[in-house]
Amino acid sequence: MADEPTNGELSRLIGQLDNRMDNRFGELNARLDKVVTIDVYTLQNQHTDKRISDVETAVQRAADSTKKLEDDFEKYQRDQAEKREDDRQKRLYQAILPVLLGLISAAIAVWAVVSR
């Protein structure tokens, strides 16, 4: 029985073990207070996914708006080119028609003189 600890030694060893366990549980509790629960993690992921979705939607709207603006600008340029072409043709006809009428009048006058 000489190898067996006395009751006092056992009590002291149990007290030391108890203190160590209290310290370890205190450290564990401190770490658990810092750990994010799965619920918080899930909510954070849902919020992040929603924000990403909102940003994707805004980017798509901006791209659509840009495409529409580019299409409208191209249509405006085509319309302006057609308008300039129409104006050019009108000015050309306004310049040629009086000259042509003058030539026809002169030809008729010459023909009337020659045919007498």
Automatic annotation (TrEMBL):
Keyword vocabulary terms for this entry: Coiled coil, Membrane, Transmembrane, Transmembrane helix
Coiled-coil regions listed in the entry: 59-86
Source organism, top-level taxon: Bacteria
Membrane-spanning segments: 92-114
Name of the protein this chain belongs to: DUF3618 domain-containing protein
Source organism per UniProt: Streptomyces roseoviridis
